[in-house]
Amino acid sequence: MAAINPAKLVRGLARAVETRGATIHEGSRVTSMGPGVVRTADGQVRARYVVRATEGYTPTIPGSERALVPVYSLMLATEPLPEAFWAEVGLAHRETFGDHRHMIIYGQRTADNRIAFGGRGAQYRWGSRIHSSLDRDPEVHAAIWARLVDLFPAVADFAVTHTWGGPLGVPRDWYASVGLDERTGMAWSGGYVGDGVATTNLGGRTLADLICGRDTDITRLPWVNHRSPKWEPEPARWIGVRAGNAVMASADVVEARTGRDSRRAMVFSRFLGE
Hints:
- The protein is an alpha+beta fold.
- Helices cover about 30% and strands about 20% of the residues.
- It has 3 domains: about 5-70 and about 170-220, FAD/NAD(P)-binding domain, CATH 3.50.50; about 70-170, D-Amino Acid Oxidase, subunit A, domain 2 (D-Amino Acid Oxidase, Chain A, domain 2); about 235-270.
- It contains 6 helices and 10 strands, in the order αβββββαββαβββααα.
- A hairpin with a 4-residue loop joins β9 and β10.
- The mean pLDDT is about 95.
């Protein structure tokens, strides 16, 4: 799979839209949104169409608390690794890598010869709480490091220089969607469950076609105007999400030991609607 730099992609897109005359207002905290209006701490913006594309931060918007659950994905990066390391482990073409465990992992060789590696494991917080302090968790980052060492034992001799993380958005049925309510002018795109770097591009192009009234191949895709059910209210949401993490983590242990699919994971996946 190809690897891209998401930060450079975002900056490039920003330059492209500004070149075409758009204005980007960063640091504008949205306090509420509705048909034809977005309210911020400093004023409001009116428009025929309002697009909600807030992904893991969606629960912070009044009225959207149960639309998505924020799940933190944390990452680390090693120091630049010598050629002797790469000669041993491969990845000569900067291939991305992962496996089929339930507690997802993902990694890549960076352009400056580090390993950037991430995974799940951070606990869901009551009330879908999001805060910058949750972007780093020493215990979870240590567990992610242990998984990387398990995959590439030679990396244990090198240092971790960066740790970070952030929330992604999970719909109740794990089904990403993009859509437009022409009656109200409210549009949305999200619920990517961690696959948003690529999927947001398709979502943006689809929204452009929907808002401009164009009937195209991508506006007829199955995810267009799909409506996911809401997540349960607390405390059911807290209990369910945390129980799910525990079940899937234990399923990984069982599957690694037996080499067979975990029955508990299959049952819980059906409950989630996967």
